[in-house]
Amino acid sequence: MRYAERLEKGPDSDSETDSLGQSNTLCTVSSKRVDPITVLAASPLGRFYCCGTEHEFVRLFDIQDSKVSDIHDSNSFLSIEHIVWSHNAQFICFSDSSKNIFAASISTSNSMTVEIVAKIFMKSSTAGPITQLLFHPDSSRIHLSTLTTVFVLSIPSGSVTHSLELSFDVCKWGFHPHDQTIVLGFEPSSIIKCDWTLNKINTFRFQFPDNVPESSQIDLNRDKMVVIDRILFTSDKNRILSQISTGMGLKEKVILCFPTSCLSGPLHSRQDSEVEEAKTIIRTFLPKPLASLLYLSIWILGQDRLIFLSKNFSIASCKIPSGQEENSHFPSHRRQTIASISSVGTSLNGNGNTDDASVLLQYGVKEILPLPGDWISPDSLALCCVWTEERSFLCPRNGEVAVVKSVGLA
């Protein structure tokens, strides 16, 4: 674990920077061997984070006391693929490449203690890799998804309680922004709404605004290679941002935005015969000069500030524009927001066009943290995250995790 603090100067940060002190701090806890990190997850309440490795180690880090605890150590050829925290930060769940599921309780009242409370073996139950884990709000169940099937697992019984064969290509699952007992399945062309017994409640279909010409509409058909990278909600839960990778080698980035009000409807399951017909969601796009900067959307802070990794590999922020701002500044043919990651050397100011520069100024694009060159690798950047509870940026490298504090992430 590497721990550092980045201090920023500026009118908005002087008072906070002064309170933090005038020097950087660096603490290093080295691993016994270089074991590449494969997954990283931070506690929703701060202080602790977990990482899993290529050789099936799972470790818990305490950044307050600079302590490291081994949660799981099989010393096998299996890798840890997913880790998720419960909402109350008292449990974690993780899975390995052989589709073994482990749930562990974490107690920090007196001294840090960790206990494996459930082991569920899913290898014979499903085909294909596990794609995602989610904790139920009461920490008693796990929502597990693969490419073809979704399962609900009971932690107390260590068994599967519900399953659903998928007839659609869901890329990402998340909680309903106003009711976390409802899960949403996001795919490029639609969203489904389910309860925790996996009964489908609604289906919502996407369409383009009427004033976007057909030649500018992005083709996200099922026969195309498409992956949803991130699903993010604004802090007021009124809007959803979706970043999609598509095209040859998934190098094209599409940034979609739509209001959560479009997900209105019943929050309780219906009988199959009573399922509503699919509703329509009008999706819009970030302005092209803004979206073309993004390599990866990371998090949304208060006041709709999007934290993102830019194409020149800096952590930066901008304000997510409203639909009215998009309409007033860009003709319909400029709504298509495909960004290539090939232009690594592009600066945060875009291509130098005067109109584009004014748009970037209007949306408050600001560099927060330039990443060192030896941090930049596709595997590391795919795992990087913002830890808002500790106003920190986490990035793995060579078996360690860099934790960089910044007032720009407050």
TrEMBL record:
It comes from the Eukaryota. Residues 1-12 have a biased composition (Basic and acidic residues). Residues 1-22 are annotated as: Disordered. InterPro entries: WD40/YVTN_repeat-like_dom_sf (IPR015943). This is Uncharacterized protein.
